[in-house]
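Predict the 3D structure for this chain.
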Amino acid sequence: MTTAAPSQASAKPARAAHTAPRYVAYLRVSTAEQGRSGLGLEAQRAACQSFIAGAPGAVLLSEHVEVESGKRNDRPALAKAMAEARVYGATLLIAKLDRLSRDAHFLIGLSRSDLVDFVACDNPQANKLTVGIMALIAEQEREAISARTKAALQAAKARGTKLGNPNGAAHLAGRGNEEAKAAVTAKAKAFAARVAPIIAEIEAKTPSANAVARELTARGIPTARGTPDKPGAWTARAVLNAKAMAEKAG
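Done. Predicted structure below.
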């Protein structure tokens, strides 16, 4: 009986024939994209669930959620998802290629390495060659958009247009206290809207506010005063406050 030769597309050992295909889902939104149609967490989750439902015997081991720009490659949740996929011999599952990264060099390097296999729900047939080409095109488009935006801003500045956010801190200087309070409240509502879907997703597994706070901290989700570099530590009170603010805003 002749056995098929192992695929040259991956240096990792092939799974045994009786082993069900396993996947680890990675969902990502950036702070700017949160809540936009088609790129929200729910849309990505639905795409991953649909993919699993359409793959005979497929098992979704876990889901990792991150709120971070696709330009950054030092993402804690992505690192955890990749590490778990390696441990279980699973495939990293993403809704779209740009959810993994917008950096062509990162994507090409990942596709050429044997660190972990990954598949995009919107293009599951893509191989390592097509992933590299798609990554380069995506990066070229991002750079072109950035260049056009900078050129437009420079042209506006040359015409004498005043740039900057008119609702920023400078705008509030000298204004009444009520306006300053309104600006702070608006910022708090925007933050709550960003983290509410992640809190809800964690609460579905563990309703305790303390447990949710620990999970948010473990995932590296920035607190209201945190930053991507220094996300800070969540508390149960911070979780409850974010939920209350999101409900008030909704």
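Residues 22 and 105 are 27 Å apart (CA to CA).
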